[in-house]
Amino acid sequence: MTAQQEQLIRKTYAAFNARDIDAALTVMHPDVEWPKAFEGGYVQGRQAIRDYWTRQWTEINPEVQPLKITGRPDETLEVTVQQKVKGLDGSVLSDGIVKHVYTLQEGLLRKMNIEI
């Protein structure tokens, strides 16, 4: 894993937690595939992620903090995260450790998978 890749990952989480969709989308490939964590399946493309996150944030309040970033032999990046999801009333719906695995293409995030 390079310093540039680590910076890319940290920028993504910081933007997501700040609800700065525009900043998050700048690090994503135009054909990015993103999991719909609480619904199942994937969305594809930057606009689909914008729509998904915008809708998601009207229903829940997730915060995801990267704890460890590791390069895998297959050239993907594994990010161990602390994921806390709250309801809009502040109640904790889930709080735990999750692994996010990223495929990069052309220096951008191309696909994210979730491993529990």
From TrEMBL:
Matching Pfam families: SnoaL_2 (PF12680)
InterPro entries xref list: NTF2-like_dom_sf, SnoaL-like
Top-rank taxon: Bacteria
Domain SnoaL-like: 9-65
Protein's name in the database: Nuclear transport factor 2 family protein
Source species: Dyadobacter sandarakinus
Organismal lineage: Bacteria, Pseudomonadati, Bacteroidota, Cytophagia, Cytophagales
